[in-house]
Design goal:
The protein has 392 residues and is of the alpha/beta class. The protein is built from 14 helices and 13 strands. Bound molecules: pyridoxal-5'-phosphate (PLP).
Length: 392
């Protein structure tokens, strides 16, 4: 029976990862995979995570099942981290999820259960899994222009022109901060425009936030989505703890659903029903580590300090790369890199140019020219700048 299976398409990012590993040259740099790296090229376990895990080993009394939507203390801690006090707890339903990915899928499954005809409006470009997850949830999608490669900023005109075709009941999927793959974020005025648009059109916002704390700070990175949440009757926010807690493999995330108080029990019950039919209970280890960190002042302070170090490092690398490219190219055409935020930016370039970067210069970036800033070091920036100036 399995002979009829369609051949799976290899993930292009994982393909680049394998090629990098098999490259025997010393002078090579991996800017492909989307994980944070320290100056030594490692993706460390954060100090507060180690301490919280040690505490759990010592103190955890049971590993019996939690609830169908995970540990309520985790949901509350994540709601505080992401939403601040923008929305009262009585209006928030939610569930722990298997990373941000499954949180997005859970939100989409919820939408499908409520309105299978809703179209999900997805930015062009976006994290490619948004398309796959939408299709897997049985929903249709439409796209809106988001990024202007000439300016390195949001293509506001294109975005609003495309979104004007949205129908009542549709959903607009937005990145909370540190847009993947462009690094171009909405500003406060844009978020206010999103709120006005959603209210006027009867469209629901769905915010995927996977990099809170990687842009300008924990509160600054959530300011836009909080301002929106405070105004919306209904909204979905999915938060991943993979990057900002470095918990990638523990699969830790959360899907929060803002709704009128009288709908909360129905939404909560539906999220739990969806979980029951797929995973039963969400994973708990990473969630408990996050709860421990967010609710213990000393652990939280140490986590925030380390997150600040990571953010400062990435923003410093952005500025240094932009400067090195200005010198190497003799122009400011990559100046936008310094203004963008998060781990990713798009250098642009054709498939052929990206192949040349890899084969002739040992610089590994992924299709579309996405580069992971955290893969750079002060030592590799000159080599990358020289290669980019020669090829792009
Ligand atoms: C925009 C966006 N959403 C969600 C995720 C999901 O992350 P995870 O499932 O590893 O928590 C990612 C990861 O790369 C992402 O970039």
């Amino acid at each position: 029976m399995f002979k009829t299976l369609p051949a799976p398409v290899a993930d292009p990012i994982l393909k680049v990862m394998t090629m990098f590993r098999e490259d025997t040259r010393d002078a090579k740099v991996d800017l492909g995979l989307g994980v944070y790296k320290d100056p030594q090229g490692n993706t460390p376990v954060m100090r507060a995570v180690k301490a919280a895990e040690a505490r759990l080993v010592e103190q955890q009394a049971t590993k019996s099942y939690t609830t169908l939507s995970g540990d309520p203390a985790f949901r509350a801690a994540m709601a505080g981290l992401v939403l601040g006090d923008a929305v009262p707890a009585s209006r928030i339903a939610g569930s722990a999820s298997t990373g941000g990915t499954a949180g997005v899928r859970l939100g989409l499954d919820l939408i499908h259960a409520a309105n299978p005809n809703a179209a999900i409006w997805i930015s062009l470009p976006t994290w490619p899994n948004h398309f796959a997850l939408t299709k897997a949830a049985g929903l249709k999608y439409r796209t809106y222009r988001y990024y202007d490669p000439e300016t390195g900023a949001v293509d506001r005109e294109g975005m609003w022109e495309d979104l004007s075709a949205a129908e009542p009941g549709d959903v607009i999927l937005l990145h909370g901060c540190c847009h993947n793959p462009t690094g171009a974020d909405l500003n406060a005025e844009d978020w206010a425009n999103v709120a006005a648009f959603c209210k006027e059109k009867g469209v629901m916002p769905f915010i995927d936030t996977a990099y809170q704390g990687f842009g300008d700070g924990l509160d600054a990175d959530a300011a836009g989505l909080r301002a929106l949440a405070a105004q919306m009757e209904r909204m979905i926010v999915v938060s991943s703890a993979s990057k900002n807690f470095g918990l990638y493999r523990e699969r830790t995330g959360c899907c929060l659903v803002i709704c009128p108080e009288e709908e909360r029990a129905l939404v909560q019950g539906t999220l739990e029903r969806i979980n029951r039919e797929s995973i039963s209970f969400p994973p708990d280890h990473g969630a408990r580590v996050v709860t421990e960190i967010l609710t213990d002042p000393a652990l939280r302070a140490d986590w925030e300090a380390e997150l600040t170090e990571m953010r400062d490092r990435m923003n410093g690398l952005r500025r240094d790369l932009a400067r090195a490219l200005r010198d190497a190219c003799g122009s400011d055409r990559f100046g936008f890199l310094a203004d963008q935020r998060g781990m990713f930016s798009l250098l642009g370039g054709s498939e052929e140019q990206i192949t040349r970067l890899r084969e002739e210069h040992g610089v590994y970036i992924v299709g579309g020219g996405r580069l992971n800033m955290a893969g750079l070091t002060p030592e590799t920036i000159p080599m990358v700048a020289k290669a980019v100036a020669a090829v792009l």
